[in-house]
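Hi P.,

Sorry for the delay on this. The queue was packed all week, but I finally got your sequence through. Input first:
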Amino acid sequence: MVRGLILFLLLTGCSTQKTILVLSETDGFRHDSIETGVNAFYSIADDLGLVVIATEDSSRLCNKNYDVVVFLNTTGNILNEQEQQCLREFVESGGGFVGIHSAADTEYDWSWYGETLLGAWFVSHPPVSEETIQVINRSHPSTEHLQGEWTCTDEWYVYDRVPEQATILMEVNDHPISWCSNVGKGRSFYTGRGHTKTSYTENALLEHIKGGLLWVSQ
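Then the structure:
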């Protein structure tokens, strides 16, 4: 937790508060946990001294009044070409990106998004079930609070690939479920957790997301 504390002090020590743009726009399936997830981000941001802009309007990506973009259970092809360009420029120039759960079920027609920014796309999932996550990397701020195994209930995605040039943080059923990577001068963090409403009441998941936010905000 020492590393997370150092990052927290760096963030809160800035004269200007950092801002998170939480986008939960959908064009297809819509998770009923989105509102709960947005509230969780407000709580996390409050702990970290950050400001949240929660929106369903992807045009906000071109305002550039934020430091981190979160795709919270987004689905479908929600971005036009200008918005795609704005997001890519933001991340490659040093911005942070966090993808939650069905962020992997988004922008299938944009190769840079799935192949580089996120690292993989969603293919399928079995029914919601309790599974045991294997924590592969416990030195990352998003996982350092966890033990080697984490048993929890969620919807477990299967992806179209193992993310290339990414650090795998956690696996479930022998495939990655959370990872992070450098993208240009920026950073990207993804977790496959976050399907259910109740998942956002888990302190362990909130700490996992908080650590991802801290890492991409460096």
